[in-house]
Structures are given as C-alpha cells and as structure tokens.
Amino acid sequence: MEERSRRRRASLLDPRSAAGQVFFLQVVIVVLLVLAGVTAMVLQTARDAVQRGRRESVIAAQSFASAPGTAAALRSPDPTAVLQPRAEEARKRTGVDFVVAMNTAGIRYTYPYPGEIGKKFVGTIAPALRGRTVVEQAGGPPLPAGAGTAVQAVVPVTDARGEVVGLVSAGITVRNVAALWLPQLPIIVGSGAAALALSTAGTTLVARRLRRQTHGMAPAELAQLYEHHDAVLHAVREGVLITGADGRLLLANDEARRLLGLPADVRGRPVRELGLPESITHLLSSPESVTDEVHLAGDHLLAVNKRLTYAPDGADGAAGTAGGTGSVVTLRDTTELAAVSGRAEVARERLKLLYEAGVAIGTTLDVGRTAQELADVTTPQFADLVTVDLLDAVVRGWEPTAEGWRHLRRAAIGGDRRMVPVHQLGEVITFTHRAPQMRTLQERRAMLEADLRQAHGWREQDPERARKALEAGLRSLMTVPLRARNVPLGVVNFYRTADSPAFQPEDLSFAEELAARAALAIDNARRYTREHAMAVTLQRSLLPRAQPDQEALEVAWRYLPAEAGVGGDWFDVIPLPGARVALVMGDVVGHGLHAAATMGRLRTAVHNFATLDLPVDEVLGNLDDLVLRMDNEESAGDAAEDHEGEGVTGATCLYAVYDPVTGVCTMARAGHPEPVVVRPDGTVGCAGVPASTPLGLGGHPFETAELSLPEGSQLVLYTDGLVEDRGHDIDVGMERLRRALDGSGRRTPEETCQAVIDALEPSHSFDDIALLTARTRMFPPSRVAEWDVPSDPAVVPSVRARCRERLREWGLEEAGFATELILSELVTNAIRYGSPPVGVRLVHGRCLICEVSDGSGTSPRLRRAATTDEGGRGLFLVAQFAQRWGTRYTARGKVIWTEQALCDGMAAAAGHAPIDFLLDQFDDPGA
C-alpha cells in the first residue's frame, strides 16, 4: 500500500501529466493569494496603526498640555524638574513612546532619556506656535521602544489669556504599531493551507478519473494512439467492423467497406439495414464468438473472426451489460490466399526436403550407401520410386570415362520396388542412345517424360519391362545427371505413378539441386574409395601374404584397417635358424600412405635384423636407431610438407623369438601393449614383459624377458586398436580381451582369432587392428641329439660316429656322408680356432639342423683358398653340402649352424658339385 501511495503521489507530482500541471498551477495560485493577503493585511495594518498612532499621539499630547499646572510649570524657573516626572508618568499611562514638553523655541524640557533634555526638538513646531495641532512622522533621538520612525503630534500649551507658553509632543513608533497585525497572520496562512489541501484532493480525484478514462496515458500519448489507430485501421489489408450493444455499426474501416460493398455513411446504422448477405448479417447480430469461419460475400471468400467486447451474463462471475454485447469482427480476403498458400506449402516442403537431403546424404564415405541415401530421402516425399544408376568405374572408385557411359550399374533403389519391375541392385544396365538416361549423360541436362506412354526412347530400352511398368501404374519420369567437378558419375531416375501428379517443368530445378548435392557426396565417396583402396593395397602388399614354412608355431592372424584410412600396424612371422621362429607386432604412429610406407620400411628392417640372428634387445635397438634416422630425414628441408603425417615418426614394436627345442620364448617390447599368454589349461595371463620406451626416443635400453611355454600354449600379440577405444580406456579393453580368451586352451589359433575379433571389434574402428595368435609346438627329445665335445682334435672321429648312429636311428642314412663331413669340419674349426666348451646339437625337423657351439665370439668367414694354401676349404665344403649355414651369437659364445633339406633333391643338389672339384678344394680335413 505504501508503495502504491508513493507511486500515486509521484504521478500526481509529475509535471508532464495534466493533473500534475493543474496541481502545480493551483499551488502557485494559492501561494500568490496568501502572499497578496499577507501584503494587504500588512499594508492595511500599517496604515491603521499610523492613524491610531496619530489619534493616540494627539490625545496624549493634548491631555498633557491641558493638564493643570503644565502652563505654570513651563514658566517656572526649572521646568524640567517639575515636568519630567509628570511626562514619564503620562507616557506610561497612555502607552505612547514619548511625551516631550518644550518651550516655544523647541528646546526640550522632558524626554525619556535625560541626556536628550535641553536639545532641539526634531519636528515641525511652527503651526503649533500659532495655536494649531501638528501631526507628522519624523525621526528623532532613540526611544525606549527602539529606533524607528515616530508618529508624533505637537500641540500648543496656552495660559489663561490664551497665549502660547510652550509646546507638548507625544508619539508612538511605527515598529510597535506593526505588532498589531501579527495575530492575524496564522489565520491567513491556515486559510492558504486549507485551500492548498482542497486543491490537492480535487486534483487527485480528477487525476484518478482521468487515469480511468485514459488508461493512464498522457494527452500526447492519447493523440499519438489515435493517430496510429486511425492509420492502422484504414491502412491494414483486413476489414474491421465494430458493433455496439444495440446492434448498430460503430466503425467500419476502408477494407471492410470494400469487401462488403458498404457506403461511406454507414456509421450508426443498424446492422440489419446494411443490405449484407444473410449469413454475415446473422453473424454480426448473434452473441457468439467466431473463429476463422469462411463466408462468401459477392466475389470474395472471406475468413471471419468475431470477438465480443463485453462479457456475457454470468461470464467470469460478472453480470453482463444490460443492453447486450458489442463485438469486433475482422474480415480477411482468402480468395487468392488459397493459391498462394498452396505454392508456399510446396516451397516449404521442398526446402524441408533439401535440408533433410543435406543432412541425410553423405553420412558415410561409401558410394553405394550414399546413393541409397539419395533414393531413401526423396521417396515418397518427391517421387514414388527412385533409382540411382552409376558408372561402373564410379562404383569401383575409379576415374569415370566417356567410354563407359553405356554401362551403368544399379546402385540404389528407393520406394516399393515390388510395385514396379525394375533392374535389381548391382545389375549392369546397357542403355541405348535414345534412352533418357543416355541422353541425360550426353547432353548434361535433366530430361522430363511427363507421360511415359509417349516416351518412345524409354520404351525401346526394354519393351517387355516397360510394358509391365506401365501396367503397374508408372506414369512419369525425370532423369537427372549426377555430375561433380564437371565429371559425370551417373544418373538418378525419379518416377511417379498414376496415383500422383505428373512431374512438371518446375520440378526439374528442384531435382537438379538434389542431384547436385548428392553428386558431390558420391564423388567424395568415390575419391575416398579410390584412395582407401590404394592405401589398403599398399599396406596389404607390405604385410605377410602366406604363412612361412616352419614347425615351431601354429599361427593365425587378422588385420582390420580403420574406417578413416589405413594405418601403420604390421605383424610378421620370421623363421630363424635352429627351428626357431620370430614373432613381430608393430604400430607406426598416424594414418595414411606415409604411415603404411614407414611400416614397410620397419618391417623390411626387422627382416634384415632377424637374418643376422641378433638378440631381441639388439633388434629393437637397431630399429630405434632407424626410426631416429627417419625422423631426421623427415625434419630435413621441406620433406614433411609433401606427405601426410608430419612430425616425428614414432612407433611401437614387440619382438619375440620362440625356440621349439627348449620351449623358451624371449621377448622385448618398445612401448607396445603386453602380449597375453593362454596356457593349455585355458588360464589367461600376461607375459610379464618389462615395458620399454617406444621407438624413436633413443638412448634407452630395451629389457628382455624369457618365458617358458608348455606345448600347446597360445601367445596372443595385438595392437592397441584392439583394446583401446574412445569410449573407454585400455584397462577396460584388456579385461574384455581376457574374457574373450577364457577357455581358449583347446581352440585353434584360427578359432581364437575369430573369437577375439567377434568380441572386441568396435562398430566404428578409428584405428587399425592387428591380431596374431601362435600356438607353441616342441620337438620331442627323440628328435634332438646333443652332447659336449672335449677340446681335442682326436675326438672328431667319435663325433662322426655318434652322428652316424643317430642318423641311422632317424632313418637318414642317405644324409650321413654330407652330415658327417659338415659336422667334422665345424667341430674341427671350433676345437682349433674356438674356445671351450664345445657342443654339438642335431635337430631332426623339416630339415636336418647341425649346430656346433663354442665359447669364442669370433665368427668364421667363407673364402676361396688358393692352390698353395694349406687350409681354408672347410667352410667352402660346408656351404656346398648344406642348404643354408650361418652364425649366431649367444651369451656364452657363438653357434655355427647348418640346414640340410630332407628330400630326394638333396642328393641331386650335392651332385651338381663334381667330386673331383670338391676333392681339389679339400686339402686338410681339419682345415
């Protein structure tokens, strides 16, 4: 309430409002009246006071002058002594300010202040000396009442003879007289305050009434509102009628008069006398509201809305107006609106379809999927049946040529294909030169066949199929070229049946817009398909194509490229001497051709290092140096700008060597995920390989781990794309891998790979996935012979004898001569040039392996001995009789190994070297 009162007072005091201006005018008038009254009262009181002072002064002066003894006292020797007391007593008794007795010369005998006695009287005394009374205003010495102008009277004092013997003057100061009007001042001010209060109350009441009548708007706002109302009412393209409660027309704007044919002077006339159609007359006279009713008035089809201006009886609990209800009626001409709305609705639907096409087409980089999206998004909103025919080169990702225009492949079908007989998906269609599709490709423009019954070129393409299509209800066709970057890709065919309106020429532009958007997406998919196929071909050419011939492991693998392109994942299975096998799993950072090329270089390097039979940690160390050199090459000059994947190469790698004789697997990893081991009983665990830094950092050693694997164990190697995903971290992926491998002890490596891929393959792969599963095998002890050899050349014959005996047990008597010769030469060299201990091991596998070890780190070297040399022919003989030979280093020295093929061709191979030639080279059996 207080806030509301403050707002009301603020509105009342607002000088911009009419009430505020009236209020301030009344305040000014009241203040002026109060000031004028006070001024008049002061002036009147002052004049009355002067008149009163004149009378009192005269009376006091005459009374003192005519008092007995006054004349005698004036003639006495000391008039002051006699008259001063009398004058003071008379002054106090009469209430005047002074009574002065003086001689005829004007010298004072009395005065309220004795110091002024004897001085000249200030005033006019000449008339008084002639017997007259003088009343005047004059200033004089100070008086007890204070300084000021005195109203004084001067009268003569006569003796018995009538002779003037002296003068008497009495006076009152104006200041004291002014105190007479002060008691009347509160009355005047109170009257002004009462008048001001009445004006405030009156102004408040008037302001409230004005606010109710003007809804709180100022006169300027009312005038502006009226101007806007009048302008809008007569300029709006909608008729407005306002009727009163008595059924008379209060207002009709220009549009209403035009629509209803009303004259200009209709205001105030009853509605029923306007000559309107009966339906509109009844609508205007009824007490009901109406929303968007359509009525015919002459040539106009009007949409009518009616709202009541007063609430009817009982509405909202309030009583209605006694005289009924008024109404406001609006009229809108919809004669042309229907046609315009139809066109607008079609345009809106087309824009909506274009938007949906922009969102739905090109969601993937698959040519067939993109074509199907075009067919799906345009049926049934635009066409009843849609087919997309692409050049065969486009489907394959190749660059299209004009030679292949006649052969198009059906890439997509939209709509109910059972409704109309059409070519099936994937079918190659050969179009005639008169077919609309071929004309569209050649002329590079859309073709419209509004009535397929008259389309001779279309019917000639396949008369039997065309007949069935017409019988099924096919009636209209639009063929639009699919072109992107000025390259033809194919055509899209829009069909409509007899149940839909035939295509019109204005539909061509919309169809071309759809086709242009789809063609760009299809061309992007084609280019991606080509580049992706090239990259995948390159990468697959760098990966193993077939399993190598080896007996140590049963191997299976899977490689899944990423959706976004190929990466740098690779794996390898490399047979090593001594029936051992190396397993490699690596991952190059990045994607694309550069990553694939880098992967090929690293895989080749691993092959070379494996050929040297280096320890696993040295292999990774050499790879680390290679990656560093590759990074330096990439950083030099502007080489990094010429390919995808700028920056440091970076790679991870796992290198493992499995020995089927001992069952030991030696592994090292450079930043690569740890392998998983599945024991024969099905238990799953990590291999426990220490983690080392990725390749390319340099200066860090690589730790190795030796793991003893029972026969039938499975070693699972993989890249991080298998266990890492954007939706979860690697720990979740590792747990899912362990669950997928549970119970895999009896599975084959092929089954294990498939089970892991089925369980872990993501729906959308953002990284390559490489998986390698190897089941271990072991050579039985019966196929391995191993013994120590004393460091004495005399024991060589006994070594040959033991070798001959073991070969006889294995049924390899035919290989005995060559084997004995090889073993004799290697043992002799180890005893003569090596250092103890010397050992021999024979392994019977897919080939016969001979290994001679000693404690020396010096490697023998094959050379051609001169005819004068006494030695140097031993390794030459070994190389001639062995299929392969080489040296590998161990922690305790080295091993010289040879492999001999166990087949009939071995003897033939040995026979190529003439015996005489070999004997010429053989000088000393111990050489």
Task: Walk me through this protein's architecture.
The protein is α+β, with helices and mostly antiparallel strands. It has 26 helices and 31 strands. The strands form six sheets. It has a six-stranded antiparallel beta sheet, sandwiched between helices. Strands 17, 18, 19, 20, 23 and 24 form a six-stranded mixed beta sheet that branches. Strands 6-5-9-8-7 form a five-stranded antiparallel beta sheet. A hairpin with a 2-residue loop joins strand 28 (838-844) and strand 29 (847-854). The protein is elongated and about 205 Å long.
Summarize this entry quickly.
With 927 residues, the chain is of the alpha+beta class.
Keywords:
single chain; six-stranded mixed beta sheet; Sensor-like_sf; phosphoprotein; alpha+beta; six-stranded antiparallel beta sheet; 927 residues; GAF; disordered C terminus; 31 strands
Helix and strand layout, with pairings?
Layout: H1 2-12, H2 18-65, H3 70-75, H4 79-94, E1 98-102, H5 126-129, E2 134-138, E3 150-158, E4 164-173, H6 174-178, H7 185-214, H8 219-235, E5 239-243, E6 249-252, H9 254-260, H10 278-285, E7 290-297, E8 300-308, E9 327-333, H11 337-360, H12 367-377, E10 385-391, H13 392-396, E11 407-415, E12 428-430, H14 436-443, E13 447-449, H15 456-461, H16 463-471, E14 474-484, E15 487-497, H17 506-542, E16 553-560, E17 567-575, E18 581-591, H18 593-611, H19 616-635, E19 651-659, E20 664-670, E21 676-678, E22 684-686, E23 691-692, E24 704-708, E25 714-718, H20 730-741, H21 749-760, E26 769-776, E27 784-789, H22 796-810, H23 816-833, E28 838-844, E29 847-854, H24 874-881, E30 884-890, E31 893-901, H25 905-911, H26 915-921
Parallel strand pairs: 20-23
Antiparallel strand pairs: 1-4, 2-3, 3-4, 5-6, 5-9, 7-8, 8-9, 10-11, 10-15, 11-12, 13-14, 14-15, 16-26, 17-18, 18-19, 19-20, 20-24, 21-22, 21-25, 25-26, 27-28, 28-29, 29-31, 30-31
Organism: Streptomyces lucensis JCM 4490
Protein name: Histidine kinase
Transmembrane segments: 21-43
